[in-house]
Amino acid sequence: MARRSHHSFNKRQKELERKAKAKKKMERRQSKNKMAEDEETDDTEQ
Q: How far is CA 41 from CA 7, 29, 37, in A?
């Protein structure tokens, strides 16, 4: 089995890190939107 070069390994690590960061950011945005929707429904129920 061929080994990856050091450069390719670092590039892959950065790519995975960037992907994980984007996923966290997306989840944070979705939770903000969900909280805003919940507040709106609470206001309309009263």
A: 51, 19, 6
